[in-house]
Write a structure and sequence with these properties.
Elements lengths: L4 H14 L1 H10 L7 E5 L7 H7 L3 E6 L2 H10 L4 E4 L12 E6 L9 H10 L1 E13 L5 E3 L5 H12 L10 H7 L3 E7 L10 H15 L5 H16 L4 E3 L2 E7 L1
The structure holds S-adenosylmethionine.
The site of S-adenosylmethionine has 19 residues, from helix 1.
Length: 250
């Protein structure tokens, strides 16, 4: 069964925890605290908007072309201003924002260079452009080895859904080609400690089931899920998808 809007929101909240440390590191450097107008494009259900509002002095705008997600964003973040738009053609004059960012967006757009160029256009000269999280499933690593097939399942599912599963490695080039200056790129680290909560584990496997579609039988899916759970409980599980970030100046 496809994920409901609420489950997507939970998934986005979960993904946002993966970039928490990076955001805490980058926000002071881009002087979020001084920004008067901040853009979060491809904001989905707006999971980053409350913290952007809390940490900046000004107004935070969240844009997405999925209106159902935006409706939820409005409910979740009353302090944000939300608008429906395509990331390639933003409905703002040149140099409107002090800072424009995105989080798990560029792998989904038709032309990521064009989308970053558009972020630059609406940002004031000297302002910052941030892509906080762009994964690269080509580098996905699973342990124990029986779980390695998850890489292929998720890579194919992303491709079928219209995303570029290998976008991460291109991010530096995308920012440079879009005309950003002083481009810094990096990859998020990872740490494995206690098993995910039962809720997070269930959600992860709901996504995998959706991604696998007909390629796995119910029994195969069940067996892999049990193997994954056991590996977490035994302190053996490793799951790593390189996730790139980029920061540039207009
Ligand atoms: C993986 S979600 C990430 C949502 C949010 N940034 C987050 O991290 O929770 C990607 C979002 O980008 C939006 N999106 C994809 N292509 C877009 C485009 N061309 N213009 C505007 N939004 C787009 C999708 O509708 C979706 O909500």
């Amino acid at each position: 069964m496809p994920l409901t809007l609420t489950e997507w929101d939970q998934r986005f909240q979960q993904q946002a925890t993966w970039t928490e440390d990076l955001r805490a590191y980058l926000y002071p450097q881009i002087e979020l605290g001084k920004a008067q107008r901040v853009l979060d494009i491809g904001c989905g259900t707006g999971v980053l908007v409350p913290e952007l509002c809390a940490q900046s002095e000004g107004q935070v705008y969240g844009g997405d072309w999925d209106l159902a997600r935006l409706k939820l964003a409005i409910r979740n973040s009353p302090a944000g201003i939300f608008f429906g738009a395509d990331a390639h053609a933003l409905p703002f004059p040149t140099a409107t924002f002090d800072l424009a960012l995105c989080h798990f967006l560029l792998l989904w757009v038709d032309d990521p260079v064009d989308a970053v160029r558009e972020m630059c256009r609406v940002t004031t000269p000297g302002g910052s452009i941030l892509a906080l999280a762009e994964p690269d499933y080509g580098g996905r690593l699973d342990y124990p080895p029986q779980l390695a097939k998850l890489k292929e399942i998720q890579t194919n599912a992303l491709r079928d859904a219209g995303a570029d599963p290998h976008l991460g490695r291109e991010l530096r080039s995308i920012f440079t080609r879009a005309g950003c200056r002083q481009v810094t790129t990096g990859v998020l680290g990872a740490q494995w400690r206690q098993p995910p909560s039962p809720r997070d584990h269930a959600l992860e496997w709901k996504v995998i089931a959706e991604d696998a579609g007909e390629t796995l039988s119910a029994q195969e899916l069940h067996d892999l899920k049990e193997l994954d759970k056991l590996a977490w409980e035994r302190g053996e599980r490793v799951l790593y998808t390189p996730t790139f970030y980029a920061w540039g100046k207009v």
